[in-house]
């Protein structure tokens, strides 16, 4: 009987370490990253403007005025003015420039036509825009809020009926 | 005469000794009784995941992971994704594998915990999968399978604030060490 008790005690003692100390393994992962400041530009629909046909919320959007004329019906949210020789249609588009990890106070926004247009005149925010050089639209753009920029096209009366007018306006925002 | 006899005898003895050394190669023998105790155990290593950043010292328990240059809007290194941006933070993420190898255990699986070795740098927090890391151990997984690469997402949640205004330092590498512990269940 004594032997049996003794054997039991020994067996229990031998089992204790395996119960008490769970097997573990460790590893160390060193993680490195270099943060850079950055800014981003997107186009958004303006509440008072023609909705962007595509790309709202991105930096590659499409704005379609639809059919425009000097005196006929015009789509909602298009402003029209007429002179003796031409008419101008205009609608606002929101430009949103966001910054990250930057102490920049504001930004400069420039615009340039993608291709020459010898017939029509283009404006962004009241500033004439051509393909010859970038035009400064604003030098003190505020980050993080939609800034309405009027996109205007002046069309001569001499333009033939049904003429499609199309161009690309390239915008560049630069942190100040 | 006697001296001459002795000299001859000595020469003969030397010749015999030398010839013996030449005829029989010298040998030595020994016996060693080797004993080993087969100890059960587990080990943890980090492996590069095919979809993630290549680890430094992949296949070891002391690896490095470099996200490279990260930003809210700029380009990222291969294997790094940016699942969310703004308005307050942006997150960059990559995948790495943990392989816990076991031998001699009856354990069915393991529990994986992780903690930051030191407080996170200003403007950055670290996540493994959905778990935000602190300097205290956090449970990442409770049923890890042994002897297989298990993919985990490592996320960096970065404040978009400017340096000095709650955001991280920019333009220089920021490092943190994450300690992992696998415990057999």
Account of the protein in words:
The complex is a heterodimer of chains A (176) and B (185). With 176 residues, chain A is mainly beta. In chain A, 11% of the residues lie in helices and 44% in strands. Chain A has one helix at residues 2-20, and strands at 24-35, 38-45, 79-82, 86-100, 107-113, 121-124, 127-129, 135-141, 147-156, 169-175. In chain A, strands 2, 3, 4, 6, 7 and 9 form a six-stranded antiparallel beta sheet that branches. In chain A, a hairpin with a 2-residue loop joins strand 6 (121-124) and strand 7 (127-129). The radius of gyration of chain A is 33 Å and the shape is elongated. By secondary structure, chain B is mostly beta strands. Chain B has one domain (41-184): Immunoglobulin-like, CATH 2.60.40. Chain B has one helix spanning 2-23, and strands spanning 41-48, 62-70, 81-85, 89-103, 110-116, 124-128, 131-132, 138-144, 149-159, 173-184. In chain B, the strands form two sheets. In chain B, strands 1, 3, 4, 6, 7 and 9 form a six-stranded antiparallel beta sheet that branches. A three-stranded antiparallel beta sheet of chain B has the order 8-5-10, with no helix packed on it. The A-B interface holds A 22-40, 98-103, 144 and B 40-46, 61-74, 85-87, 90, 92, 96, 98, 100, 102, 105, 107, 117, 123-124, 126, 154, 156, 158-165, 167-184. Strand 1 of chain A pairs antiparallel with strand 10 of chain B.
Straight-line distance between termini of chain A:
92 Å
Q: Multimeric state of these chains? A: heterodimer
- Annotated CATH architecture of chain A: Sandwich
Radius of gyration of chain A: 33 Å
Put simply, the count of helices of chain A is: 1
Principal-axis shape of chain B: elongated
Arithmetic mean of pLDDT of chain A: 92
CATH architecture of chain B: Sandwich
Broad structural category of chain A? mainly beta
The major beta sheet of chain A can be summarized as: 6 strands, antiparallel
In one word, what is the shape of chain A?
elongated
Most residues in contact: chain pair: A-B, 26 and 64 residues
The main pleated sheet of chain B reads as: 6 strands, antiparallel
CATH class designation of chain B: Mainly Beta
- Which structural class should the secondary elements of chain B be placed in? mainly beta
Task: Indicate the proportion of strand residues of chain A.
Answer: 35-45%
> Which topology of chain B does CATH recognise?
Immunoglobulin-like
């Amino acid at each position: 009987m004594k032997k049996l008790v003794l054997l039991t005690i020994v067996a229990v003692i031998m089992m204790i370490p395996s119960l008490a100390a769970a097997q573990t393994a460790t590893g160390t992962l060193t993680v490195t990253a270099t943060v850079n400041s950055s800014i981003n530009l997107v186009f958004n629909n303006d509440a008072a403007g023609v909705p962007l046909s595509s790309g709202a919320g991105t930096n590659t959007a499409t704005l379609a005025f639809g059919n425009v004329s000097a005196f006929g019906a015009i789509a909602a949210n298009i402003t029209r003015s007429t002179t003796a020789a031409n008419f101008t249609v205009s609608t606002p588009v929101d430009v949103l420039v966001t910054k990250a990890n930057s102490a920049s106070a504001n930004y400069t926004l420039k615009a340039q036509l993608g291709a020459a247009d010898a017939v029509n005149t283009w404006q962004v925010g009241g500033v004439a825009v051509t393909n010859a050089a970038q035009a400064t639209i604003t030098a003190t753009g505020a980050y993080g809020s939609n800034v309405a920029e009027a996109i205007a096209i002046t069309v001569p009366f001499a333009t033939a009926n049904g003429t499609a007018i199309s161009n690309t306006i390239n915008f560049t925002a630069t942190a100040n | 005469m006697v001296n001459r006899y002795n000299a001859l005898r000595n020469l003969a003895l030397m010749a015999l000794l030398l010839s013996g050394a030449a005829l029989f190669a010298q040998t030595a023998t020994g016996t060693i009784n080797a004993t080993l105790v087969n100890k059960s155990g587990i080990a943890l290593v980090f492996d590069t995941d095919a979809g993630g950043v290549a680890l430094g010292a992949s296949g070891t328990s002391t690896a490095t992971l470099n996200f490279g240059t990260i930003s809210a809007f700029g380009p990222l290194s291969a294997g790094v994704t940016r699942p969310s941006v703004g308005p307050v933070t942006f997150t960059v993420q990559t995948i790495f594998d943990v392989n816990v190898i076991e031998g001699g255990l009856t354990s069915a699986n393991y529990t994986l915990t992780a903690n930051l070795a030191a407080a996170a740098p200003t403007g950055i927090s670290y996540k493994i999968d959905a778990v935000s890391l602190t300097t205290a151990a956090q449970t990442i997984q409770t049923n890890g399978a042994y002897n297989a690469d298990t993919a985990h997402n490592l996320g960096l949640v970065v404040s978009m604030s400017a340096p000095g205004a709650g955001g991280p330092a920019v333009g220089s590498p920021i490092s943190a060490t994450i300690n992992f512990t696998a415990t057999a269940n």
